[in-house]
Write a structure and sequence with these properties.
single chain; 51% strand; 7-stranded mixed β-sheet; mainly beta; globular; 4-stranded antiparallel β-sheet
Length: 119
């Protein structure tokens, strides 16, 4: 069974940085596209970005380059580096794994990680 365990969230001040980690176990991590999402209070979940198994990244343009997604296939872990954080970045952040060939967009999800940015 594939499991995703997130870590690294917390309460930070605006303008600072935070890095979230998502450790994957039980599957072929290097073949997965890993996505990052967030859900702010009272809002629908939205895409932050993704990284393919080969390291190609995509980001939502509205982030203006403040966030960076990376992965370490040797550690079966993906990271979300968030810089210049703003109060509007406050949300629960989720990582998800897209397993090739299943037909589903994202097959497995992390438990969610609260990030709160104070002004």
């Amino acid at each position: 069974q594939v499991q995703l365990v997130e870590s690294g969230g917390g309460l930070v001040q605006a303008g600072t940085s935070l890095r979230l980690s998502c450790a994957v176990s039980g599957g072929a991590f290097s073949s997965y596209t890993m996505g990052w999402f967030r859900q702010a209070p009272g809002k629908e979940r939205e895409v932050v970005g993704r990284i393919t198994g080969g390291g190609i990244t995509y980001y939502v343009p509205a982030l203006n380059g403040r966030f960076t997604i990376s992965r370490d296939n040797a550690k079966d872990t993906t990271y979300l580096q968030m810089n210049s954080l703003k109060p509007e970045d406050t949300a629960v952040y989720y990582c998800a794994a897209d397993v090739p060939g299943t037909g589903a967009e994202y097959d497995y999800w992390g438990q969610g990680n609260q990030v709160t940015v104070s002004s």
